[in-house]
Amino acid sequence: MRLYVVLGGAIALVIAGVWFLAGNTYTVKVALPSATNIVNGGTVQLNGFEVGSVSSIQAQDNQAILELKIDRDYAPLHEGAVVSVPFKALLGERVVDITDGPSTNAKIPSHGLIEGQMPKPTEFDQILNTLDAPTLDHLKSLVNGLDNTVKGHEGDVNATLTASGPALNALGGVLDAIGTDGPAIRALVTRLNELTGTVADHQGDVRTIVTQLTRLTSLAASRQQQLRDSLSALPPTLRTAKTTLDKVPPVADDVVPLLHDLDPATERLKSVAGNLHPLLKDLRPALHDLRPTIKALNELLDNTPGLFDTAHETFPDLTKALDNLSEPLNFLRPYTPEAVGWLSNWNSAFSNFDSNGHYARIFVQAGAGDPTINPGIVPPGVRESPYPLPGQNGGTPWTDAFGSGVR
Hints:
By secondary structure, the chain is an alpha/beta fold. The protein has nine helices and nine strands.
């Protein structure tokens, strides 16, 4: 197997070398019944494109053998290729036209022979022989009348022909171009025919488009001032848009590092999403249990507007009552520690408990300073303060949030 591969590679290299040494042209031979109006160097076309030229013309066995050189870019030809020799222009030189066979067919090697077709030229006598007797009589009368008209004016005719020489030369160039571009013109006419057929098949659509276009142009004509105002406002808008777009590249440049910084976070999103999946799965029963609560909440929200309406009527009186309570609350607020301490002591006094139940333990202190014993007399070492300041008895005078005392 390896030996076959090596031999195959060697043969391919030899063929490639021969192909390279043979030059950049591909040569085929064409057998034709005659070579009338075919010249050396004549044009060779492949599928409508010029691909080479006629390199030689030889006679062999009552046939004309043409040798055609074709550029390597269009080689090789394939079995089934058809060669015909139409006129290159309306009059004069012929061109060798090749229609290649299917690419799946076998390739025609260089210097291979292809049978060609050459339409026979139509002679003038053949055309005359096709005419009937009355037509020939009318033609003869026309020729005799033309001869009588020209007789005696040969010089004028010659001058006219001399003056029309450039025009005829230009006409010949046009006809030559038409003959050379025959395939292209044929393709153009075919496409034009297809286009007109398509338009004919969609006459209703074309009529609708024309009608709508007419309405659009009529509307545009009736709104000329609005269009003029819009167009006049367009340049400032474009300038503003240009200013905005000019700011986009710097912003984009600043965003790129941010996106790079987000790369680690985005890489972790996959694992986070994986961890969220079990959590969302566990949430399903909880959401199912929330349905009664959501239903009750829905009923509550249905009753909320009525509650708000009632509260709206109550709020003015409530606001007024709170305004009246502001002064007593401001006065009592500094005594909050004493009130809390009194409640704590009262709770301690009645928190005792025995077999008979709760009982209160009250501590009564009496002495020389008691006003019921010595009314109006303050013993030594005793200071009378019937209105102590908040926190004074506990040695922690009250201050507000700004550090100020009672005012």
